Structure formats: structure tokens, C-alpha cells
Automatic annotation (TrEMBL):
<keyword id="KW-0677">Repeat</keyword>
<keyword id="KW-1133">Transmembrane helix</keyword>
<feature type="domain" description="Serine/threonine specific protein phosphatases">
    <location>
        <begin position="176"/>
        <end position="453"/>
    </location>
</feature>
<keyword id="KW-0472">Membrane</keyword>
<feature type="transmembrane region" description="Helical">
    <location>
        <begin position="62"/>
        <end position="86"/>
    </location>
</feature>
<dbReference type="InterPro" id="IPR006186">
    <property type="entry name" value="Ser/Thr-sp_prot-phosphatase"/>
</dbReference>
<dbReference type="GO" id="GO:0005737">
    <property type="term" value="C:cytoplasm"/>
</dbReference>
<dbReference type="InterPro" id="IPR013235">
    <property type="entry name" value="PPP_dom"/>
</dbReference>
<dbReference type="InterPro" id="IPR004843">
    <property type="entry name" value="Calcineurin-like_PHP"/>
</dbReference>
<dbReference type="InterPro" id="IPR029052">
    <property type="entry name" value="Metallo-depent_PP-like"/>
</dbReference>
<keyword id="KW-0904">Protein phosphatase</keyword>
<feature type="compositionally biased region" description="Polar residues">
    <location>
        <begin position="130"/>
        <end position="142"/>
    </location>
</feature>
<dbReference type="InterPro" id="IPR051134">
    <property type="entry name" value="PPP_phosphatase"/>
</dbReference>
<dbReference type="Pfam" id="PF08321">
    <property type="entry name" value="PPP5"/>
</dbReference>
<dbReference type="GO" id="GO:0004722">
    <property type="term" value="F:protein serine/threonine phosphatase activity"/>
</dbReference>
<keyword id="KW-0812">Transmembrane</keyword>
<keyword id="KW-0464">Manganese</keyword>
């Protein structure tokens, strides 16, 4: 992954993120007019947009001054773009002085993106979510648009009646008022932020918990899961194992449904982070565009803050380890190390957090390369068994990849992949699955199901606007 930094005058910059696996660029600079044209051509391999995500598409970040972007799609999957650098606007430097003069020097530096530090928000400043929520909720109340006729929250308590009405509204393609949307996100963030990065789930004797894999914005299939297995409650808890947004075009509805159940009863709904609960993936796989279309730009930042609070893994009754991606690039990792990961950031490009979100199992022993990209890897049966033995566990459950039957059992029965998005992206023809674990033996009971009809909105419908890559 490359980090491209191009600057003129080095005073201000507009961040633009490029996603490609092949990138070529040509620059032309006119000093007198202070204009600059950057022409980029990059091809997008359609195969990389399949369920393997294609980390290699995440080429990096381009920083550039005051840009006007013009883009033309040429042929199938080839994008040509021109960025014209307009005359510098009034800006302030670190000392507060204003100036307009732009220098004629330019520089391009290339460095490994993973060496850059992740900036954490300062503790004393208000988060984007808090600022947005205060704007959506004047006078500490919840502002609701006068014409709104959907489900309503009374006070600060999210009830089952509200959630059911909200799901029914979503089913009929009605929207949730932004005031209530803000309230749900704020409450969800508060609940998730208090959790460790590894959450322990206790299932009493004779009780059960249901583990679901990727849903990927397939809201109507989510409703079908609840129809088949019951509504989430303290007696019927669920764990959704990441990747509940992107690709499917009802990701907003899925997210608010899961979050509302979490707010209603935290022990009825457990939610893990997947590799798609991140800004970089949301930009290209549809969720960011969907949020902008159904809510507004402010909610993009609000969702990102909630995603940064999602736990990375769960352990059921100290025996079943549940994680979105898989295990680690090194041996000897203990549960205590996972529990103490500082997850409140965008996923890094290496380390324990990266491995939990991105790795995959393989039939061969040891570790091997992954087709997802250079920094990803696959792990074998010996790696799985060592991890289980080191942590006194019995089973690994993960998701992250579509399976024709909805699930796959690997590594001598010690690892199960579960995937809950049937007929993935309306073209795979696969079944979906979920797993019920009943205490005390926690023997996995795998239930499969078929896709159900949904409104005529195609997957990735909100991912086709390439302008969103550069906002």
C-alpha cells in the first residue's frame, strides 16, 4: 500500500482516497496560472469486488491542494480523472497569518502507509457525534420533523414496540427521523464504548445464544432470520459477527435495527466489528453513499465513531471464540492481549486488530499468502489448534467469507465459518446460515435458510458514485 503526498505551497490540503490496484499518474504544472493537472488512470478488477474484498484495492491516500475534480468512466472498470488546482484561497498558517501566495515548488513523496500514525481524538473535545447530536436535538430534546409519521421514541427509552414499528417502517421503505437516528447512535456508542475489546458472553444452563455471520445490508434476509429464530431478547440473544453493512443497499436499516436492539437490551444483542465497519471500506462498497442519501453527511462521521467502538471478538462460556476474520500472524496470543487492544480507531494495516478482522483459514498447515492482499494471510489447522490449546478453548467461529451452504466446518472440526447473507449480492445463489449454541455443552446447531425477495434496489446501488471516493 502506498501513501502519495503531493503539495503546492504546503499550507492546506484536501484529502482524497484512491482505490485501485494499478495506478499511474502524470502531472503538468503551469506556474503563472497556478494551475495543476493530475491525470490518473487506474483499472479496477471486478473479481476484487467479490466477497474477498480485495485489500489490494485499498491503494492509499492522495493529499492535494484545493482541488476541482472531473471524472470520466472509460470502458469497463477503467477510470480517468483530472484534478485541476485552482488559485489558492485565503488560508491561515500555524501562526494565524493569512496569505494567498502559492509557491511554485511541488514535491511527491512515497512512503508505506502503515508507518503513519493513527490520530486519536482528544479526550476533552466534543466528538463529531456529540456535535451532530446537539444540532439534531436542540434544547436537549429530540427534534422531529413535523411531517414524520413513523416510529417514535418516548423519552430516552428505546422499547420493543418502537423497534418493531421501526422494522416495519423499514420494511415498507419508510425512513427514520434524523432526531431518533441521532439518539440511537449516541446511546449505542455509549454502551459499546464501555465494553472491552474482547467481550465474554455467559449463557446459563439450558439457555442458548445465536451467532450470525455477515449480513451485508440484506435487511429483508435479516427480518427472515428473526422470523425463523425469534426476535432478539434476553431469553433469545444474538451475536452478529461483523460486516453488517456495505454491498447490500439496505445497510442503514440493518445497522439501526441491530443498534436499536442493543439499546433496548444490551444482553439481547451482541455486535462485533468486521473489516467493513470502517471508513475506507464504506467509501467504496456503498455504506457511505447510502448514509448520505438516506440521512446526511453528518451521519457518516457518526456511524464511523460507533464502528470504532465495536468490540473485536467474543467468547461464549469461556469455550467458543467468535471473531469476524480469524487468528493471528504470530503464535502465543492470549485472550488477555485481545481484551486490552485499543480498538478506538480505524483498523490499522498490521497487528492483532488487523489480523482479527482480515485473516482467513486455509487447508495447509502453517501460514500462507492471501488473495485479499499483501498484508493479509491465511492460517492452517495447526495454528487454530495451538491457539485453542493456549487459551483453553474448544472452538473458533468466524465469518468474513461467503459459503455455498451458508457455513463450512474446517480444521478437524475446530473452526466453523458462518455466513448469513443468502444469494449474496443477488448473484451468488448461496444459502445463509446461523448457529445456535445451547449451554452447557455448546454443541453447534447450524440452521440454513434461503434468500427472500426484497424491493428492486440492486446491491451496491449507492457505491456507483465515484465522487464519494474523493470527499
Amino acid at each position: 500500500m502506498l501513501y502519495l503526498h503531493l503539495k503546492i505551497g504546503c499550507k492546506t490540503s484536501l484529502r482524497c482516497t484512491l482505490y485501485a490496484w494499478c495506478l499511474n499518474f502524470v502531472t503538468v504544472f503551469n506556474e503563472r496560472e497556478r494551475l495543476m493537472t493530475l491525470q490518473c488512470r487506474f483499472s479496477i478488477d471486478d473479481a476484487k469486488y467479490d466477497d474477498d474484498d480485495g485489500r489490494i484495492n485499498r491503494t492509499g491516500t492522495l493529499l492535494i491542494v484545493g482541488a476541482t475534480i472531473v471524472m470520466v468512466v472509460i470502458g469497463s472498470g477503467v477510470l480517468s480523472l483530472t484534478l485541476a488546482i485552482a488559485q489558492s484561497r485565503w488560508i491561515k498558517d500555524k501562526k494565524g497569518r493569512k496569505h494567498t501566495k502559492s509557491t511554485s515548488t511541488r514535491s511527491i513523496t512515497v512512503q508505506d502507509h502503515h508507518k503513519t500514525k493513527i490520530k486519536q481524538p482528544k479526550a476533552k473535545t466534543k466528538s463529531n457525534m456529540e456535535k451532530t447530536t446537539s444540532q439534531e436535538q436542540p434544547n436537549s430534546g429530540t427534534y422531529v420533523e413535523p411531517q414524520y409519521s413513523g416510529s417514535r421514541i418516548k423519552g430516552d427509552t428505546i422499547t420493543l414496540d418502537f423497534v418493531k414499528k421501526m422494522m416495519n417502517d423499514f420494511k415498507e421503505q419508510k425512513y427514520l427521523d434524523r432526531g431518533y437516528a441521532s439518539k440511537i447512535l449516541l446511546q449505542t456508542k455509549k454502551i459499546l464504548k464501555a465494553l472491552p475489546s474482547l467481550v465474554d458472553i455467559t449463557v446459563p444452563h439450558g439457555k442458548h445464544v445465536t451467532v450470525c455471520g455477515d449480513v451485508h445490508g440484506q435487511f429483508y434476509d435479516l427480518l427472515n432470520i428473526f422470523e425463523l429464530n425469534g426476535i432478539p431478547s434476553e431469553e433469545n440473544p444474538y451475536l452478529f459477527n461483523g460486516d453488517f453493512v456495505d454491498r447490500g443497499s439496505f445497510s442503514v436499516e440493518v445497522a439501526f435495527t441491530l443498534f436499536a436492539f442493543k439499546c433496548m437490551s444490551p444482553s439481547a444483542m451482541y455486535i462485533a466489528r468486521g473489516n467493513h465497519e470502517s471508513k475506507s471500506m464504506n467509501k467504496i462498497f456503498g455504506f457511505e453513499g447510502e448514509v448520505r442519501a438516506k440521512l446526511n453527511d453528518k451521519f457518516v462521521k457518526m456511524f464511523a465513531e460507533v464502528f470504532n467502538c465495536l468490540p473485536l471478538a467474543h467468547v461464549i462460556n469461556k469455550k467458543v471464540f467468535v471473531v469476524h476474520g480469524g487468528l493471528f500472524s504470530v503464535d502465543g496470543v492470549k485472550l488477555s492481549q485481545i481484551r486490552s487492544i485499543n480498538r478506538f480507531c480505524e483498523p490499522p494495516d498490521e497487528g492483532l486488530m488487523h489480523d482479527l478482522l482480515w485473516s482467513d483459514p486455509q487447508p495447509l498447515p502453517g501460514r500462507g499468502p492471501s488473495k485479499r492482499g499483501n498484508r493479509c494471510f491465511c492460517f492452517g489447522e495447526d495454528v487454530t489448534k495451538r491457539f485453542l490449546k493456549d487459551n483453553n478453548l474448544d472452538l473458533v467461529v468466524r465469518s468474513h467469507k461467503s459459503m455455498h451452504k451458508g457455513y463450512e466446518i474446517q480444521h478437524d472440526g475446530k473452526l466453523i465459518t458462518v455466513f448469513s447473507a443468502p444469494n449474496y449480492c443477488d448473484k451468488k445463489g448461496n444459502k445463509g446460515a446461523f448457529i445456535r449454541f445451547e449451554a452447557p455443552d455448546l454443541k453447534p446447531n447450524i440452521i440454513t435458510f434461503e434468500a427472500v425477495p426484497h424491493p428492486d434496489v440492486k446491491p451496491m446501488a449507492y457505491a456507483n458514485n465515484f465522487n464519494r471516493l474523493f470527499s
